[in-house]
Write a structure and sequence with these properties.
This protein is an alpha+beta fold and about 475 residues long. It folds into three domains: about 100 residues, Rossmann fold; about 70 residues, 2-Layer Sandwich (Dna Ligase, domain 1), CATH 3.30.1490; about 260 residues, ATP-grasp fold, B domain (D-amino Acid Aminotransferase, Chain A, domain 1). Helix content is about 35%, strand content about 25%. It has 15 helices and 22 strands. Strand 2, helix 2 and strand 3 form a beta-alpha-beta unit. Keywords: ATP-binding, Biotin, Ligase, Nucleotide-binding. Acetyl-CoA carboxylase is a heterohexamer of biotin carboxyl carrier protein, biotin carboxylase and the two subunits of carboxyl transferase in a 2:2 complex. It catalyses: N(6)-biotinyl-L-lysyl-[protein] + hydrogencarbonate + ATP = N(6)-carboxybiotinyl-L-lysyl-[protein] + ADP + phosphate + H(+). It comes from Neptunomonas phycophila.
């Protein structure tokens, strides 16, 4: 299928904008990069066929201004809009407005985004499809009395979760009745402020759980899975380190989990790329659906590396009308892939943001190493957005060799002028629990308390040996 008659506007910034531009250009599709004033000289602006500054530095005056994004796309002759992740990517009203403006939204339709974007509704949908969910309330909680009644059935400890939440935000833990009464009011207020909706629901808190997600891809008629990713190493419920496949799953559990995810995607007649997230109890070998992200994920490269499937390219092709020609029995796992998120933060000082100018930069250029980034030597990181500046991804035939490659690549990476999370990853990769795969969603928080004093020393040592 020829795509050259289309023009794709990327409604995002940073490394994912670069990723989308590269995928589109591989398909022969002209690209438009929109940017804020702060991103005028960013790499997406330099790589795209066209660039348009649409607003001031603040996201609500640029990347989050849906009307302005659509007006710009129409004026510049775009036929499709790719939202990337974050910003407007899971905004059903935006997806609907794009379609109403006569353009193609690269992702699922607005109805699916609404259905699965509401966490309580997503639980109900999963249950109807026969997918196991974490025991919790039947839908949203409207009052403290209703919460207390539901808690008697669910049991403590439990989670209070924002129905419209995402990215690990809008979650609080209650260990008893008194905490539930206190925390639910706070959670509702926080959810209202962060997501525009104060709706919450309750869910059993599974201690020592693994966070495992399944990548799916569908064209509206059939959906397949691209196996799972291990995402348990998190800080404040934000992912730091991901790998594929998960070291916690047996082959039998893996097939069951991934088939379950594909089943739910097929029930939705899902179109595009998406991720179904699960909690896995390693002791009982039970898995529970928790939510779905109806967009591309930050950690999608590890799935691409182990399957050989270009997920972003397929997102675009499907949106532009090409049927999914991949069959499930053609998708196999090849080796192990690891992704390390590199953020402009100082891990020795509570991960304090570190925007500023990069005075020197060197990435490893080796077989099995992939760098997804939007920064370059001399680039100035603005203070207005997420601190992610790069993803260092490695692939090898085994998990042990992938860890060796990852550590070697980290040692070869040099970023000067700002603080980054490189020291964190250098220490993490040498931790016995991480190397053995014996960790859960609480491991990193505990590890940071025990190793925070070593992070500054690690960075100093690396800097001195690199000189």
């Amino acid at each position: 299928m020829q795509f050259s008659q289309h023009k794709l506007l990327i409604a995002n910034r940073g490394e994912i904008a670069v990723r989308i531009i590269n995928a589109a250009q591989q398909l022969g599709i002209p690209t438009i990069a929109i940017c804020s004033e702060a991103d005028r000289l960013s790499l997406p602006s330099l790589l795209a066929d066209e660039v348009e500054v649409i607003g001031a530095s603040r996201a609500d005056q640029s990347y989050l201004n849906a009307d302005l994004v659509i007006e710009t796309a129409k004026r510049l002759g775009a036929t499709a809009i790719h939202p990337g992740y974050g910003f407007l990517s899971e905004n059903a009203d935006f997806a609907e407005a794009v379609e109403q403006a006569g353009m193609i939204f690269v992702g699922p339709d607005a109805a699916t985004i609404r259905q699965m974007g509401d966490k309580a509704c997503a639980r109900t949908t999963a249950q109807a499809a026969g997918v196991p969910v974490v025991p919790g309330s039947d839908g949203e909680i409207d009052s403290i009395e209703e919460a207390l009644t539901a808690a008697q059935t669910i049991g403590y400890p439990l989670l209070i979760k924002a129905s419209a939440g995402g990215g690990g935000r809008g979650i609080r833990i209650a260990h008893n009745k008194e905490e539930l009464v206190k925390e639910i009011t706070i959670a509702q207020s926080e959810a209202k402020a962060a997501f525009g909706s104060g709706a919450v629901y309750l869910e059993r808190f599974i201690k020592s759980a693994r966070h495992i997600e399944v990548q799916i891809l569908g064209d509206g008629k059939q959906a397949i899975h691209l196996y799972e990713r291990e995402c348990s190493l998190q800080r404040r419920r934000q992912k730091v380190f991901e790998e594929a496949p998960s070291p916690a799953l047996s082959d039998a559990i893996r097939e069951q989990l991934c088939a379950t995810a594909a089943k739910l995607a097929n029930t939705l007649n899902y179109k595009g790329a998406g991720t179904l997230e699960f909690l896995f109890d390693a002791e009982t070998e039970e898995f529970f659906f928790i939510e779905m992200n109806t967009r591309i994920q930050v950690e999608h490269p590890v799935s691409e590396m182990i399957t050989g499937v270009n997920i972003v390219e397929w997102m675009i092709k499907i949106a532009l009308g090409e049927p999914l020609t991949l069959c499930q029995d053609e998708i196999n796992i090849h080796g192990c892939a690891i992704e390390m998120r590199i953020n402009a933060e100082d891990p020795s000082k509570g991960f304090f943001p570190s925007p500023g100018r990069i005075s020197a930069l060197h990435w490893p250029v080796n077989e099995g190493v992939r760098i997804d980034t939007h920064v370059f030597d001399g680039y100035t990181i603005p203070p207005y957005y997420d601190s992610l500046i790069a993803k260092l991804i490695v692939h090898d035939v085994s998990r042990e060799l992938a860890f060796e490659r990852a550590l070697k690549s980290l040692k070869q990476t040099r970023i000067e002028g700002i603080k980054t999370t490189l020291p964190l990853h250098r220490l993490l990769l040498q931790d016995p629990a991480v190397q053995s795969g014996d960790f859960d969603t609480e491991t990193l928080e505990v590890w940071l308390k025990e190793h925070s004093h070593r992070l500054a020393d690690k960075e100093k040592a690396h800097a001195s040996t690199a000189d």
